[in-house]
Specification:
Length: 593
């Protein structure tokens, strides 16, 4: 009874420490992908009865298929609309629940060693490399898949104590939580490999039954893997972007980087760009990384039969990190801190078990325990302090990307995203222009930076500069619609109305349901006295937004000018019915009272 009380109080203490360390996230705003996932995501407003089948029907978001995560965001949206504090609190709450899951998993795995469970769960809760998974609302998928992944592991531990028909419910429970984890984030495809690593640690005999156990899990992983490949599409880099040797360098660097940051979590960043080559070569640390990795692998594998703890810890880390080591490049970062959320569990376990064993040596039990407890507490407090500070970096896009450009001053993406904060949120064209200038200094073909800088130059009436940027963007990518919309506005401002019509037409070929551009092209055609064409565009705008009175009145005016007075009267009355106040002179022309 006393031990159960100690276990419970220990867990509560770890959760409180973690909650305090990460509490600043509750005051943060939306950042980065949050705008695409939440702020601009109209699908979240669907009633849940529609949202659930919609999200399960392979509708991808930011290159991912994770229907349970999207349903979760939809529920949050209906509960709070666009209050970022609510989303942050949900992420933090699930993270705290995951700490409990880690605590119980490790407690069972270590044969009820309380110190080991406390230390591992504390590191999991407050490690600075885990801040990104909690502080970034978009990473609900990270904390949510772990929320299901951990119970799956726990069920498996209880199942393998006596894997027979009597324990089939435990096996089914493991499978059930695995499926939920898969549907929350594709990273859960590692689950069957984690089970095999646990089998090794528990010294289970390899036989047909053990392999058959894993088949349902492997099938689920393969299916989700195929869906993910389809979902990520263009996010996956071309295989000829880097040579085979360079891919080993990137993977080796990522692996070693994660090991170093486990112990020394400094110079953290939300964005770690791929390395720039010098004379066609990667920097020295990338060239050395595969060598270090091979030496480490040899060292661990030599302990395969004699040190199950070491092999298990590194094995668990490796099987959960291997798919994001950038051998096949995905995204724009060579490493990402959120990728360590589940994998670090294996390394934390190694550290905790070695500390436990050292502290319990009979010859120096008191001194050993004192040293172990002192070091453990000191380490946790240092990590908690770093994490507390790190959460504030995620306060907004401004703080996030300002931090990135301090760490990576030559990152075109960092400067672009900071510029876009000033451009869209802060409405500060001068600051945005400065950031876009830096973006294009380091990447002269950065398409969106060229377009946005062209828009700023248009606003500043520096039309020649705007023309250069926008024409350059059109040459780089003929399928980026915003370029042609911006060119249309520019040509309208400079009196090149015929050219503006052509620009809008190119835009509408790419975005055929843009009501604003149909209205804009219609107004330009009206100015050119091409009234029938203008009326056709206004009709299209009305199809897309039939309750907008402005579209009805400009259509009426176009019809009047083209000699269709009866149609003009009918549409003017419709505009008036929708709330438009008709000009007295125009009413007189139409003989409307």
């Amino acid at each position: 009874m006393e031990k159960n009380k100690a276990v419970f109080l220990s867990l509560i203490g770890v959760i409180i420490l973690s909650a305090i360390a990460l509490s600043p996230v509750c005051f943060n705003r939306f950042a980065w992908d949050d705008f695409e996932y939440i702020v601009r995501n109209a699908s979240l407003a669907k009633p849940l009865s529609e949202a659930i089948p919609y999200f399960f029907n392979q509708n991808y978001f930011v290159g991912n298929y994770h229907p349970l995560t999207m349903i979760g965001l939809s529920i949050e949206y209906h509960a709070s609309h666009l209050d970022p504090a609510f989303y942050h609190k949900v992420n933090l709450f699930i993270h705290l629940m995951n700490i409990a899951g880690v605590f119980w998993f490790v407690y069972v795995l270590s044969d009820r060693k309380l110190f080991v469970a406390i230390f591992v769960s504390a590191l999991f809760g407050i490690h600075p490399m885990h801040v990104e998974s909690v502080a970034w609302i978009s990473e609900l998928k990270d904390v949510l898949y772990s929320f299901f992944y951990l119970p799956g592991l726990i069920f498996y531990l209880y199942y393998i104590k006596k894997p027979d028909i009597k324990n089939s419910l435990l096996y089914l429970g493991c499978l059930f939580f695995f499926v939920l984890s898969l549907l929350s984030k594709p990273a859960a495809v590692s689950f069957p490999l984690s089970l095999l690593v646990i089998d090794y640690y528990r010294n289970r005999t390899i036989n047909a039954g053990l392999i058959l156990e894993k088949i349902p899990f492997l099938i689920g992983s393969v299916i989700m893997g195929l869906i993910t490949i389809k979902a990520q599409g263009s996010a996956v880099g071309s295989m000829d972007q880097y040579s085979l040797i360079e891919r080993f360098m990137l993977s080796g660097y990522a692996y070693v980087h994660y090991l170093i940051k486990l112990i020394i979590p400094v110079n953290l960043s939300s964005f770690h760009p791929f390395p720039a080559k010098v004379d066609g070569q990667f920097p020295l640390q990338f060239q050395l990384a595969p060598v270090i990795l091979i030496l480490l692998a040899v060292l661990v594998l030599r302990k395969f039969k004699t040190n199950r703890l070491l092999v298990f810890g590194f094995g668990f880390f490796t099987v959960n990190i291997i798919l994001v080591l950038q051998f096949v490049t995905v995204g724009m970062t060579v490493v990402s801190e959120r990728f360590t959320y589940m994998p670090y569990l294996g390394l934390f376990y190694i550290a905790a078990m070695y500390l436990y064993e050292y502290g319990n040596q009979k010859t120096k039990a008191y001194a050993g325990n004192s040293l172990v407890y002192g070091l453990s507490v000191a380490l946790c407090l240092v990590f908690a302090f770093i994490s507390f500070s790190r959460t504030k970096v995620w306060k907004s896009d401004k703080t996030l990307w300002s931090d990135v450009v301090r760490k990576y001053p030559q990152s075109a993406t960092g400067h672009y995203n900071l510029g876009t904060y000033y451009f869209k949120e802060d409405k500060n064209d001068a600051q945005a222009l400065s950031s876009y200038n830096q973006t294009l200094k380091y990447d002269s073909a950065y398409l969106k930076a060229l377009v946005n800088r062209g828009i700023i130059y248009t606003r500043m009436k520096e039309y020649a500069k705007a023309e250069i940027d926008l024409n350059r963007a059109a040459q780089i990518d003929t399928n980026f619609s915003e370029t042609f919309r911006s060119l249309g506005l520019l040509h309208n401002y400079t009196g090149k109305s015929e050219q503006a019509v052509m620009d809008y037409t190119r835009y509408l070929k790419l975005e055929p349901n843009s009501v604003d551009v149909f209205y804009g092209r219609g107004m330009t055609l009206f100015q050119l006295k091409r009234y029938e064409e203008a009326a056709a565009d206004f009709s299209k705008a009305i199809e897309l937004d039939p309750k907008n009175s402005t579209y009805w009145i400009v259509k009426s005016m176009s019809e009047y000018e083209s000699g269709k007075k009866e149609d003009a009267i009918k549409d003017a009355l419709k505009a008036q019915q929708l709330g438009e106040v008709l000009d007295p002179g125009y009413k007189s022309k139409l003989n409307i009272n």
